[in-house]
Design brief:
The chain contains 7 helices and 10 strands. It has 2 domains: 115 residues, Cobalt-precorrin-4 Transmethylase, domain 1 (3-Layer(aba) Sandwich); 97 residues, Tetrapyrrole methylase, C-terminal domain (Methyltransferase, Cobalt-precorrin-4 Transmethylase, Domain 2), CATH 3.30.950.10. The strands form 2 sheets. The protein has a 5-stranded parallel β-sheet, with helices on both faces. Strands 6-7-10-8-9 form a 5-stranded mixed β-sheet, with helices on both faces. It starts with a strand and ends with a strand. The protein is α/β, with parallel strands linked by helices. Helix 6 links the parallel strand 6 and strand 7.
């Protein structure tokens, strides 16, 4: 296998947050692999102006980030074929390729491939910037959590929290954070055209939230 696979992070969806290195790689590879939902995926929309080469779309369910097995395996074999032919292939992903990214599934499916990862601005960094919310400084600790339940020790040991997919049991989550003197904000559908920034996490209680809801919180005395 003489080709090379790139995992290219595009940042949270703002085209101005795509790095110069990411643009250089995308303009020089032979094939670009892009995740796709019912419509053109947001990652593809971000980089579309830079692309002139073959684009391979990998369908997946946006709200569950699950790739249909048969279609995914078909795409893996196509990518393996390109790499065997000596082609340079770039998989584009929002945020960073190593943080809750579908790129990891592709990489693990072709372990023999030579891989280079191009980091991107992660969604939690962009969310904190939009909320004007400091994450950590000095010797403080930051926990990055995938949503759902988590041990009480985390609330005791960490000064700041980033909670992906916070929509599940959101009201219970907010009440729990408040008991430990956390304050925070939530960004809904970060990077999408319908993005909304809520500087107070309590303002969304009692509402049905989309899958892509990211909460950033910090202890009030930190």
């Amino acid at each position: 296998m003489s080709g090379k696979l790139y995992g290219v992070g595009l940042g949270p969806g703002d085209p101005e947050l795509v790095t110069l290195k990411a643009v250089r790689i995308l303009q020089n590879v032979d094939v670009v692999v892009a995740p796709q939902g019912e419509k053109e995926g947001l990652a593809y929309q971000v980089v579309k102006p830079y692309l002139k080469q073959t684009v391979l779309f990998v369908p997946f369910t946006m709200e569950k980030t699950q790739v249909p097995v048969s279609l995914f395996h078909e795409a893996v074999e196509q990518v393996r074929g390109y790499l065997t032919e000596g082609k340079m292939v770039a998989f584009v992903t929002l945020g960073d390729p190593l943080l809750y990214s579908t790129f990891l599934t592709l990489w693990r499916s072709i372990p023999e491939a030579e891989v280079e990862v191009i980091p991107g601005v992660s969604s939690f960094q962009a969310a904190a910037a939009k909320l004007k919310f400091p994450l950590v400084q000095g010797r403080e600790r930051l926990a990055i959590l995938p949503g759902g339940d988590f041990p009480e020790e985390i609330l005791e040991c960490f000064q700041s929290l980033v909670i992906f997919k916070a929509a599940k049991n959101y009201d219970r989550l907010v009440e729990r954070l408040k008991r430990w003197s956390f304050r925070g904000g939530t960004v809904v559908r970060l990077g999408f055209p319908e993005e909304v920034v809520h500087p107070e996490m309590e303002g969304l209680c009692g509402k049905e939230l989309p899958y892509f809801s990211l909460l950033v919180a910090r202890k009030a005395d930190s």
